[in-house]
Amino acid sequence: MKFFIDTANLDQIKEAEALGVLDGVTTNPSLMAKEGITGAANILNHYVAICDAVEGDVSAEVIATDFDGMIKEGEALATLHPQIVVKIPMIEDGVKALKYFAGKGIKTNCTLVFSAGQALLAAKAGATYVSPFIGRLDDVSTDGLNLIQEIRHIYDNYAFETQILAASVRHTMHVIDCAKIGADVMTGPLSSIKGLLNHPLTDIGLAKFLADYKKGN
Ligand code: G3P
Question: Ligand 1, atom 4: nearest CA belongs to which residue?
Fold first, then answer.
């Protein structure tokens, strides 16, 4: 299972990278705005800074919602850095854009996916990644993990190569449940990754080992 961090915060990206378990980064316009990164030039520079800080794929989202605009923007994003994956919304022109980029060998991440039907379309169009937003489904009393299960089932039926990128992950149990189901990737905040470290018995056990060592030395 790949671990992506879902943030535009460079310090958090570097902290996750330093842990040695990071496989990539996802961003979106809201995450950029949260870090105070505004204006096209600043946003593009920030994508390059993120790519320079990590080794894996870095999703960069188009703002255009029409086919021509998405192609123009996506091609510009793809030339920024070899690690860039063009993030395309799950809308009609987005599906056409996914197909276009697949033909050009440009990696894509189909975002804002909330149903198995949308995920099927994204795979048919040749998306590299599909991003079902599990936390946002949970927010509206719909089981986000159930969607991951449905997509896994459908993709396995037909050996689709599109990778399931569980997005809108909020906490460690989302990560563990996605791993059990077989999501290819999860993207979440730093807390959802570092939280996996924690267990009180580890802390108690370590304190005891160290105390016992000191008794004999
Ligand atoms: O990866 C998608 C993500 O950025 C959305 O997360 O927590 O805003 O639902 P959230």
Answer: 168
